[in-house]
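Q: I have 93 residues here and want to know how they pack in 3D. Can you give me a structure?
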Amino acid sequence: MHHIASDWRRADLQKADRALCAYAIKLTKSPTSTCEEDIVALRQRGLDDRAIHDATQVIGYFNYINRVAEGLHVEQEDFIRPWEKSPYLGDDY
């Protein structure tokens, strides 16, 4: 499951989660290229409009806060270990 942190395409995800990850990448890297077809694809995989709205808000917020931190050259905390290197994960992750 923690393959999501390094490469979500390798993770064992449901179709809805895969579609949501692809949407997040598209919204992050090329937001002006998103279109109604992206929303339809999410609906076809079981997400309702509320879930799509909430996901878009969360994706947008993380993009915003990362840009603020990068723009202000905020240093990352050195006590936070990357998720994929968590000591609580076994070798299966």
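Q: Anything worth noting?
A: The chain is about 55% helix and 0% strand. The helical segments are 3-7, 15-29, 36-44, 49-71.
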